[in-house]
From TrEMBL:
PROSITE patterns: GST_CTER (PS50405), GST_NTER (PS50404). It holds the Pfam family GST_C. It comes from Ignelater luminosus (Cucubano). GO terms for biological process: glutathione metabolic process. Residues 4-85 form the GST N-terminal domain. This is Glutathione S-transferase. InterPro entries: Glutathione-S-Trfase_C-like (IPR010987), Glutathione-S-Trfase_C_sf (IPR036282), Glutathione_S-Trfase (IPR040079), Glutathione_S-Trfase_N (IPR004045), GST_C (IPR004046), Thioredoxin-like_sf (IPR036249).
Protein backbone atom coordinates (compact mmCIF):
# COMPACT_ATOMS: atom_id res chain seq x y z
CA UNK A 1 0.00 0.00 0.00
CA UNK A 2 1.56 3.31 -1.02
CA UNK A 3 0.95 6.23 1.30
CA UNK A 4 2.73 9.26 -0.05
CA UNK A 5 2.23 11.28 3.12
CA UNK A 6 4.29 8.92 5.27
CA UNK A 7 7.84 10.13 5.67
CA UNK A 8 10.37 8.28 7.83
CA UNK A 9 13.64 9.93 8.88
CA UNK A 10 15.81 6.85 8.63
CA UNK A 11 19.33 5.42 8.64
CA UNK A 12 20.48 1.92 7.78
CA UNK A 13 22.93 2.30 10.68
CA UNK A 14 20.11 2.76 13.19
CA UNK A 15 18.66 -0.44 14.71
CA UNK A 16 15.44 1.28 15.90
CA UNK A 17 14.94 2.79 12.43
CA UNK A 18 15.30 -0.66 10.89
CA UNK A 19 12.74 -1.96 13.39
CA UNK A 20 10.21 0.53 12.04
CA UNK A 21 11.18 -0.34 8.47
CA UNK A 22 10.46 -4.01 9.24
CA UNK A 23 7.05 -3.05 10.65
CA UNK A 24 6.26 -1.04 7.50
CA UNK A 25 7.14 -4.08 5.37
CA UNK A 26 4.98 -6.35 7.55
CA UNK A 27 2.10 -3.91 6.95
CA UNK A 28 2.89 -3.67 3.24
CA UNK A 29 3.25 0.09 3.60
CA UNK A 30 5.48 2.16 1.36
CA UNK A 31 7.23 4.86 3.36
CA UNK A 32 9.19 7.73 1.90
CA UNK A 33 12.61 7.25 3.50
CA UNK A 34 14.66 10.36 4.28
CA UNK A 35 18.18 9.02 4.71
CA UNK A 36 19.93 10.80 7.57
CA UNK A 37 23.65 10.15 7.95
CA UNK A 38 23.84 9.69 11.71
CA UNK A 39 27.56 8.94 11.47
CA UNK A 40 28.31 12.48 10.32
CA UNK A 41 28.21 15.61 12.49
CA UNK A 42 26.08 17.20 9.77
CA UNK A 43 23.16 14.87 10.49
CA UNK A 44 21.18 17.52 12.37
CA UNK A 45 19.25 18.60 9.30
CA UNK A 46 16.82 21.50 9.91
CA UNK A 47 13.95 19.49 8.43
CA UNK A 48 14.33 16.96 11.26
CA UNK A 49 15.22 19.31 14.14
CA UNK A 50 12.21 21.51 13.34
CA UNK A 51 9.77 18.64 13.90
CA UNK A 52 11.59 16.63 16.60
CA UNK A 53 13.54 18.64 19.20
CA UNK A 54 15.17 15.37 20.32
CA UNK A 55 16.22 14.77 16.67
CA UNK A 56 16.30 11.00 17.10
CA UNK A 57 16.20 8.52 14.25
CA UNK A 58 13.63 7.16 13.48
CA UNK A 59 11.08 9.98 13.34
CA UNK A 60 7.82 9.58 11.43
CA UNK A 61 5.92 12.40 9.75
CA UNK A 62 2.39 11.57 8.66
CA UNK A 63 1.01 14.75 7.15
CA UNK A 64 0.95 17.24 10.01
CA UNK A 65 1.32 14.51 12.64
CA UNK A 66 4.80 13.71 13.94
CA UNK A 67 5.87 10.89 16.26
CA UNK A 68 9.26 9.53 17.24
CA UNK A 69 10.65 6.62 19.18
CA UNK A 70 10.61 3.41 17.15
CA UNK A 71 8.21 1.63 19.51
CA UNK A 72 5.68 4.47 19.47
CA UNK A 73 5.94 4.67 15.68
CA UNK A 74 5.46 0.90 15.32
CA UNK A 75 2.27 0.95 17.44
CA UNK A 76 0.98 3.97 15.54
CA UNK A 77 1.52 2.37 12.12
CA UNK A 78 -0.34 -0.80 13.13
CA UNK A 79 -3.24 1.15 14.69
CA UNK A 80 -3.51 3.55 11.79
CA UNK A 81 -2.71 1.39 8.77
CA UNK A 82 -2.93 -2.28 9.81
CA UNK A 83 -5.74 -4.26 8.18
CA UNK A 84 -6.10 -5.93 11.60
CA UNK A 85 -4.42 -5.64 15.01
CA UNK A 86 -2.39 -8.89 14.76
CA UNK A 87 0.97 -7.15 15.06
CA UNK A 88 -0.16 -5.16 18.12
CA UNK A 89 -3.36 -6.67 19.55
CA UNK A 90 -5.78 -4.49 21.48
CA UNK A 91 -6.38 -7.29 23.99
CA UNK A 92 -4.99 -5.75 27.24
CA UNK A 93 -3.01 -8.81 28.34
CA UNK A 94 -1.46 -9.49 24.95
CA UNK A 95 -0.66 -5.80 24.57
CA UNK A 96 0.86 -5.60 28.07
CA UNK A 97 3.25 -8.47 27.23
CA UNK A 98 4.26 -6.79 23.98
CA UNK A 99 4.72 -3.44 25.75
CA UNK A 100 6.93 -5.10 28.35
CA UNK A 101 9.20 -6.45 25.56
CA UNK A 102 9.27 -3.03 23.90
CA UNK A 103 10.21 -1.31 27.15
CA UNK A 104 12.86 -3.99 27.70
CA UNK A 105 14.33 -2.97 24.35
CA UNK A 106 14.32 0.71 25.38
CA UNK A 107 15.76 0.32 28.83
CA UNK A 108 17.97 -2.73 28.49
CA UNK A 109 18.87 -3.92 24.98
CA UNK A 110 19.34 -0.74 22.98
CA UNK A 111 21.38 1.17 25.63
CA UNK A 112 23.82 -1.76 25.70
CA UNK A 113 24.14 -1.72 21.92
CA UNK A 114 24.89 2.01 22.13
CA UNK A 115 27.38 1.51 24.96
CA UNK A 116 29.18 -1.18 22.97
CA UNK A 117 29.19 0.45 19.54
CA UNK A 118 29.39 4.24 20.00
CA UNK A 119 32.88 4.28 21.61
CA UNK A 120 34.19 2.31 18.59
CA UNK A 121 32.37 4.41 16.00
CA UNK A 122 33.00 7.82 17.53
CA UNK A 123 35.70 7.69 20.21
CA UNK A 124 38.50 5.54 18.83
CA UNK A 125 37.96 2.60 21.18
CA UNK A 126 38.98 -0.82 19.90
CA UNK A 127 37.13 -3.27 22.11
CA UNK A 128 33.96 -3.88 24.05
CA UNK A 129 34.85 -4.09 27.78
CA UNK A 130 34.41 -7.59 29.21
CA UNK A 131 31.88 -6.45 31.86
CA UNK A 132 29.70 -5.01 29.08
CA UNK A 133 30.05 -8.22 27.05
CA UNK A 134 28.84 -10.15 30.11
CA UNK A 135 25.97 -7.72 30.57
CA UNK A 136 24.93 -8.12 26.91
CA UNK A 137 25.00 -11.90 27.35
CA UNK A 138 22.70 -11.51 30.38
CA UNK A 139 20.25 -9.50 28.24
CA UNK A 140 20.21 -12.18 25.57
CA UNK A 141 19.68 -14.69 28.37
CA UNK A 142 16.54 -12.80 29.42
CA UNK A 143 15.31 -12.85 25.83
CA UNK A 144 15.84 -16.61 25.68
CA UNK A 145 13.72 -16.90 28.82
CA UNK A 146 10.97 -14.68 27.37
CA UNK A 147 10.98 -16.94 24.31
CA UNK A 148 10.62 -20.16 26.30
CA UNK A 149 7.67 -22.23 25.11
CA UNK A 150 6.71 -19.43 22.72
CA UNK A 151 7.07 -19.28 18.98
CA UNK A 152 7.60 -15.53 18.96
CA UNK A 153 8.75 -13.10 21.62
CA UNK A 154 5.28 -12.27 22.98
CA UNK A 155 3.32 -15.40 22.10
CA UNK A 156 2.50 -17.57 19.13
CA UNK A 157 2.19 -14.76 16.60
CA UNK A 158 4.66 -12.30 15.16
CA UNK A 159 4.21 -8.86 16.75
CA UNK A 160 5.96 -5.51 16.81
CA UNK A 161 7.93 -6.84 19.81
CA UNK A 162 9.82 -9.16 17.44
CA UNK A 163 10.25 -6.58 14.72
CA UNK A 164 11.52 -3.92 17.14
CA UNK A 165 13.81 -6.19 19.15
CA UNK A 166 14.74 -8.46 16.22
CA UNK A 167 15.75 -10.79 18.99
CA UNK A 168 14.21 -14.00 17.83
CA UNK A 169 16.59 -13.53 14.97
CA UNK A 170 16.28 -16.98 13.40
CA UNK A 171 12.54 -16.62 13.06
CA UNK A 172 12.81 -13.08 11.76
CA UNK A 173 15.29 -14.22 9.12
CA UNK A 174 12.51 -16.31 7.59
CA UNK A 175 10.38 -13.24 6.92
CA UNK A 176 10.33 -12.41 3.19
CA UNK A 177 11.22 -8.74 3.80
CA UNK A 178 13.92 -9.39 6.46
CA UNK A 179 16.92 -9.24 4.10
CA UNK A 180 15.96 -5.86 2.64
CA UNK A 181 14.59 -4.28 5.81
CA UNK A 182 17.18 -5.41 8.36
CA UNK A 183 20.08 -7.57 7.16
CA UNK A 184 21.36 -4.96 4.71
CA UNK A 185 21.64 -2.25 7.38
CA UNK A 186 23.03 -4.72 9.91
CA UNK A 187 25.81 -5.64 7.44
CA UNK A 188 26.50 -1.95 6.75
CA UNK A 189 26.80 -1.26 10.50
CA UNK A 190 29.12 -4.29 10.89
CA UNK A 191 31.36 -3.06 8.05
CA UNK A 192 31.45 0.45 9.50
CA UNK A 193 32.55 -0.91 12.89
CA UNK A 194 35.32 -2.96 11.18
CA UNK A 195 36.39 0.13 9.22
CA UNK A 196 36.61 2.23 12.41
CA UNK A 197 38.60 -0.49 14.21
CA UNK A 198 41.15 -0.57 11.38
CA UNK A 199 41.38 3.25 11.30
CA UNK A 200 41.94 3.38 15.06
CA UNK A 201 44.51 0.57 14.90
CA UNK A 202 46.46 2.35 12.13
CA UNK A 203 46.24 5.70 14.00
CA UNK A 204 47.54 4.08 17.20
CA UNK A 205 50.43 2.47 15.25
CA UNK A 206 51.32 5.84 13.73
CA UNK A 207 51.29 7.52 17.15
CA UNK A 208 53.56 4.76 18.55
CA UNK A 209 56.05 5.13 15.68
CA UNK A 210 56.23 8.95 15.89
N1 LIG B 1 14.42 4.90 21.93
C1 LIG B 1 14.66 5.52 20.65
C2 LIG B 1 16.15 5.58 20.36
C3 LIG B 1 16.44 6.42 19.14
C4 LIG B 1 17.92 6.75 19.00
O1 LIG B 1 18.63 6.98 20.00
N2 LIG B 1 18.38 6.76 17.75
C5 LIG B 1 19.77 7.10 17.49
C6 LIG B 1 20.25 6.40 16.23
S1 LIG B 1 20.30 4.66 16.45
C7 LIG B 1 19.89 8.59 17.24
O2 LIG B 1 18.99 9.20 16.71
N3 LIG B 1 21.02 9.17 17.63
C8 LIG B 1 21.28 10.55 17.36
C9 LIG B 1 20.70 11.49 18.39
O3 LIG B 1 20.23 11.04 19.45
O4 LIG B 1 20.74 12.70 18.13
C10 LIG B 1 13.90 4.74 19.56
O5 LIG B 1 13.59 3.57 19.78
O6 LIG B 1 13.59 5.32 18.51
Amino acid sequence: MINNSLKLFFSQYSPPARGVYLVSKALNLDLTLVDVNILSKAYLIPELVSINPQHTIPTLQDGSFVVWDSHAIAGYLVGMYGKDDMLYPKDPKKRATIDQRLHFDTENLFPKVVEAIYPILFRGKTAVPSNLRESIKRSYGFLEKFLKKKVWLAGNDLTIADLCCVSSIKKCKQLPYYQEANQRGLDMLGSKIQERLVETYVRNLTIKND
